[in-house]
Amino acid sequence: MSIRYAWLALLFVLLQPAMVEAEADVSTGEVMPRALAEFEAVYKVRASIASGEMSMSFKAMDGGGFLFRTLTSPRGLVRMFARGEIDESSEVVIAGDSIVPLNYTVRDTISKNHDANIRFDWDSGTVAGVERGEDVSGDLRPGMLNRAALYVAIMRDLKLNRLPEQYVLFDRGQIKAYQLENLGKEYVEVPYGRFEAVKLVRDSDNSRRSMYLWCAPELDYLPIRIELYKDDKRVSRADLRAVTGLPASGQVQGPR
User: How many domains does the chain contain in total?
Assistant: First the structure.
């Protein structure tokens, strides 16, 4: 496999939706104090011979609400063939026990026509914007998320011990539902340390792809490992190598 092809495979992995129907009515409700701490995490990403780095952050905004953001860029020899970065983000508020997305943006300086700028207007009950050069719109549903806000929702739902069986998200102009299964706990070792983690899988009968997340309770259920499979073969892995703002030291011991 060529380096350029491997990096394109890596981009495909990182741009896949993880999973998303919350049952609570998130179109109303007073904004409550968050249950998740602000953080910034860095991951080492591998896809075949391609390598990259992904940062993930959750920060309070001056005007209220929070910004969840991932920033992905190639590393090593791959940078000779693919330059730029993928900047994906969503502004959210926390209403009661639910995550409410206000927008979704993508700035991709590696691939053409992959940008997105979408607004979630809960007052009018509509979502609209531009994604991949096309106008997109739809009707909002209670609990609807986007690909970025999804990670925050999963972390919060795990912390509240109420993980739903499925989520719903607005993705590329369509409303998509994905099943989410809790596979139990296991110990995982990543560059940042060894943790007991909750293993989740997104899978569906009509898809050849599945995604696995390992979320560590010691880190507010931050994903410490993310893997994508196609036809039961692993395509990529992202492992946590650094994090700030969360409580654990990264040296949790457990059975090997």
Answer: 1
